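can u do me a favor
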C-alpha cells in the first residue's frame, strides 16, 4: 500500500510548528503584559468564542489539560482580567467573564492574530483557502467520528 501523502507524524510536526509560530507571533503581547502564552491564549479564546466561557470548554476546544487551564485562570482572575459568574440553570458551572482590563489586551491580541493569519496565508489564492477550509471541516468531522467510535483507553 502506498504511503499517504500526509502522515500522522507530519501532521503532528506541523501542528507543533504552527503552535510555536503562533506563540512567537503573540510574543509582543506576552512581553508587554507579562502574561505567559497560555494565559494570553485563554483570554483570546474567551473573547473569540462566545458561548464557550467555561474552563471545560477551554480544555475541550484548545486541547489543554485542566490543571494548566485552572492555573492560568487563577492568575487571570487574580490580575483582574477575568471574573467568575454562575451559569444560569447549572449550579455546577462557572462562566469566565472578561473584564474591562482585558479589553486592550484582547484588542492587541486580535491584531497579532490577524497579522499571523495574513502571514501564514501569504501566496495562497482565495480558492486555495476555500479548499483548505473544506479539508479542515472534513478533518474535524472525521476526528469527532474517530473520537466517538474509539473512546480514550480503547484500541483502534
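np, heres the sequence
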Amino acid at each position: 500500500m502506498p504511503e499517504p501523502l500526509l502522515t500522522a507524524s507530519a501532521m503532528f510536526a506541523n501542528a507543533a510548528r504552527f503552535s510555536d509560530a503562533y506563540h512567537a507571533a503573540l510574543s509582543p503581547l506576552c512581553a508587554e503584559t507579562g502574561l505567559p502564552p497560555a494565559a494570553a491564549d485563554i483570554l483570546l479564546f474567551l473573547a473569540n468564542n462566545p458561548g464557550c466561557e467555561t474552563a471545560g470548554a477551554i480544555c475541550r476546544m484548545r486541547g489543554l489539560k485542566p490543571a494548566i487551564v485552572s492555573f492560568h485562570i487563577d492568575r487571570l482572575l487574580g490580575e483582574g482580567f477575568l471574573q467568575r459568574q454562575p451559569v444560569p440553570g447549572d449550579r455546577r458551572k462557572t462562566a469566565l467573564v472578561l473584564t474591562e482590563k482585558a479589553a486592550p489586551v484582547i484588542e492587541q491580541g486580535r491584531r497579532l492574530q490577524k497579522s499571523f493569519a495574513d502571514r501564514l496565508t501569504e501566496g495562497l489564492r482565495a480558492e486555495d483557502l476555500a479548499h483548505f477550509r473544506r479539508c479542515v471541516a472534513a478533518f474535524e468531522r472525521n476526528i469527532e467520528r474517530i473520537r466517538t467510535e474509539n473512546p480514550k483507553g480503547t484500541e483502534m
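The mean pLDDT is 92. hope that helps!!
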